[in-house]
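Fold it.
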Amino acid sequence: MFGKNLKKIRSVRNMSQQEFSELFDLKRATLGAYEEERSNPKIDTVIKIANYFSIGLEELLTKELTVNRLLRFNEAITTESSYNNDDFDTIPCITEEVKTRYLDNFANNISNEDLPTVKLPHVTGKDKMAFVIEDLTMSGGSNGFFPKDTIIGANVPLTELANLSGELSVVITKDQLYFRKLTYNNNTVMLTANHPGVEPVLLSTGDIKAAWRIIHVFRYTMHSDSNALEQRLAQLENTIASLRQKPW
């Protein structure tokens, strides 16, 4: 069952054997042997895979995983005859692929109707915007944010920027989008990152074109002791890289 589940995970995640092997420090031939049930994996390998995809060990080893389970959908909802697609509001979503286009359109007062959208239970779409995290700027600590996490913000009028002081916020300027902790002081805004290698950004309130208060967070993977170590190592690597770029 383990091999069959590996194949299904790769299929759902659209990963090649090579990509999957590199992710877990395996040889491609070794992964092939696991998938074809010709070899049994080491327990630490199983634990790594289970933690990464937020799947229980017993479930991964003994039960056939469904596509809905791997996508973290509630199967009772998706198969319920009374399910109504209209029960979920659409929320425009800014991903790495559309961010540059969005900023260009925003600067030119073009509508964002062509943005991708997400639908989530218990989250209304009015005045909301979703953002997919693409870097480690806000990583750090047990509540850090990591690539592929999704945050949802409620729009805040520019006249009320002072109310965002101390809040996690998304701020847009003419050509940049920032996800930071915002501090307001006398018509000046400081945007602070969690990552120690990222310098604060100072902005005049006049430079800010739009702002959202973060009100919902959806994790791409569950945080655990094992991937927390990997995340700390990634932060360290980014810090070292940023130090190398600074003139001395």
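Residues 73-83 have pLDDT under 50 and may be disordered.
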